[in-house]
Amino acid sequence: MNPKPMKKSDLGKGWIKPRRDEKRKISPEYHLIITEGTKTEPLYFQAIRDIINRKYRARVQVDISGEGHNTLSLFERARERVAKSANGYSHVWVVYDTDDFPADRINRTAELCAGAGTEDTTYHAIWSNQCIELWYLPHFGFYQTNIPRKAYGQKLTEQLERINADSYAKNRADMFEVLRPYLDSAIANAKLLDKQNQGKTPAAAAPGTKVFELIDVLRTYLGD
To answer: What are the tens digits of pLDDT across the range 112-147?
Structure first.
């Protein structure tokens, strides 16, 4: 005997359970994080990737590639990876430090990312002026003074020792977990700094970092 058809007036009501043969389709969202650094950045984002892939293996894929290229070749490398991907990427995050690269290359990479988007893929220029460590410091407070790259390590050591987390080193694999309790503060402080840099090019925004944009998207999948 066939079941009685559902009344039109009952369709969409919360107490109506979906039929067992109705499959909900969830499109996986793939992320590619490609870094200019070969040590600090890959270790930090590797920790994030591992957390996400353990929880949402079929939903979010984050790949890490510590390429060690300069800014422009890093962008080209990212496009090659996208072209070769079987699944495609919804978001491509091109992570690089300004370091001592010429200003035109730093700015041009951001321009290329902004113009390379398609209906399926969005490119993001995630630069830090001058270095990735600038993203770590806002976990402990608001910093707006431009300092030499070499000075960041000492400042981070001071803050890490204050919370009994030992000294800073570029090859520390636990930086994400150590800084994780202060993530909300870091995003808020980095956004404030970014607001002050509004209208400036990446090369002129010193200090400045866009890493918060990447973390702000991925933290949805990190849980508490």
So the answer is: 999 999 999 999 999 999 999 999 999 999 999 999
Domain range enclosing 108: 26-221
Residue pair 78/64 in contact by the 8 Å Cβ criterion:
no
What does the alpha-carbon distance between residue 83 and residue 89 come to, in Å, rounded to a whole number?
Answer: 10
The closest of 101, 84, 206 to 143, measured between CA atoms, is 206
β-strands 60-66, 91-97 pairing: unpaired
**Residue 5 and residue 171: Cα distance in Å, rounded?**
63
Q: What's the full length of the chain, in residues?
A: 224
Sole residue written with tokens 């939903």: 59
Dist. CA 122–CA 178, nearest whole Å: 30
Q: Which residue has the tokens 């894929």?
A: 61
How far, in Å, CA of 7 to CA of 170, rounded?
64
How much is the CA Rg of the chain, to the nearest whole Å? 21
5 within domain boundaries: no
Kindly indicate the confidence band of residue 82, based on its pLDDT and cuts at 50, 70 and 90. very high
Counting the structural domains of the chain, the total is: 1
161 lies in some domain:
yes
